[in-house]
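Review form for a predicted model. The reviewer records the input and the model, then writes brief findings.
Reviewer: anonymous (R2)
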Amino acid sequence: MLLIALLLSAAAPTQTQADMNRSAGTSYTQADAAMTAQWKRTYAYMKGRDAQDGSRGGGFGYAAALLESQRAWLKFRDTQCVIEGGQYAGGSAQGMTTAGCRTDLTKARTAQLKSMIWYQ
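Model under review:
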């Protein structure tokens, strides 16, 4: 059994830190694109909710609140990930760690934005 594990691990291609950094960057780019697409859907939905509700003098203000929330969230994400990447400050894993943090937080925000579309 040990011999099989050793043979399999020896046959597996090794990945350099540069490869891992590139992969983390690609994952973040994909997560960011998905969030941007969801943002557009959710923001349009909130604008529509505001337009439908004339009872409060022009709507509740969902779209404006969402925009403010997104701006604050982007600042939070970027600052939080600087902190998380800081554990490897100056090292080759810093970029990968920062990108991984951004990917995880961006995926969570995408799910959050999606959950803000309330169907009645």
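Findings: The two ends are 57 Å apart (CA to CA).
Further findings: Residues 17-52 form the longest helix (36 residues).
Recommendation: see findings above.
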